[in-house]
Amino acid sequence: MNNKHYMQILQELAAKNGPLCVGLDTDPSYIPESVLKNYKSAPEAVLAYNKAIINRVVKEKSACCFKVQIAYYEAMGLEGMKVYSETLKEIKKSGLIAISDIKRGDIGATSDAYAKAHFKGDFETDIITINPYMGFDTLKPFTKYASKELGGKGAFVLLCTSNPGMVDIEHQQLKDGSILLEKVGNEIARIGEEFAAEYPEQTCGPIGAVVGATQEKDARYLRDKYANTFFLIPGYGAQGGAARIAATLLDKAGGAVNSSRGILCAWKNDESLKAKIENNTLTLDDIADSAARACVFSKNDLLQAKASL
């Protein structure tokens, strides 16, 4: 049994390696044709690219975790789901944390099945993302896996997401004058505290929150209000979230700042690869090396922003 839950391990890795989370939302269209043609299928090329990035990140110590968005693998069919499974295994071997971005949320036995699917077996992961908007009772089948007996798994609950339409639901005002995301945040904090006795040395609960780096007005408020909750922070990079917003969210209990396309597609804006792009001679090593450089840049960008607060 683990003496630490996986959210605690992630928090410690973020302090050691920096707060960058590398998003392996790897669409085949992100890989140049000069690389794709060397593989029997697009999913095979995706797996090779994922493994190359994971190996470089571990070597450079430029990130604390990887977030694997399941939708991209589901879109590739059965072979894509095999790649998803193999990617999770590769992350596990790396010693870093695997976050499966699955955003599940359903009632009763269905949530039980989802939890079993992603915390055991072929798709086993360390931490998942879950959606609370069918009711807080739908979280229990997932959060029970945070116990030592069931493996100390973690979950990030959607709180304040990075899409513009989040205001349609998350900012809805309740009768008591609060907004809906506050009700969700309070529940996340409460569940996290339930595990304090089981993990007496925990400095964050096993249940974290997804808080986007695109809403500057919310960042300081949410970070102060939920000081003991570890955040997963999307929106930095390709979605336009600034490092200063992410840095604010890294205060207190801290967080992991995700960047996906900004890393996976770094080669497209890499001046050192301009000639190879024009000649269609890019290799897997070229695009993986470019991704690795983007990881180092992002890590340093975030750390500098945090230091300047």
Write out key terms for the chains shown:
eight-stranded parallel β-barrel; single chain; alpha/beta; 13% strand; 309 residues
Description of the molecule:
45% of the residues lie in helices and 13% in strands. It is built from 13 helices and eight strands. The protein has an eight-stranded parallel β-barrel with strand order 1-2-3-4-5-6-7-8, surrounded by six helices. The longest helix is centred in the last third of the chain and has 24 residues, at 284-307. It starts with 5 loop residues before the first helix and ends with a helix.
Structural class: alpha/beta
In percent, how much strand structure appears in the residues?
A: 5-15%
Helix-strand pattern: HEHHEHHEHEHEHEHEHEHHH
Number of helices: 13
Query: In this structure, how is the largest beta sheet organized?
Result: 8 strands, parallel, barrel
Radius of gyration: 19 Å
Distance between the termini: 38 Å
Q: What would a concise description of this structure say?
A:
Helices cover 45% and strands 13% of the residues. The chain is built from 13 helices and 8 strands. Helix 3 packs parallel to helix 5 and helix 9 runs parallel beside helix 10.
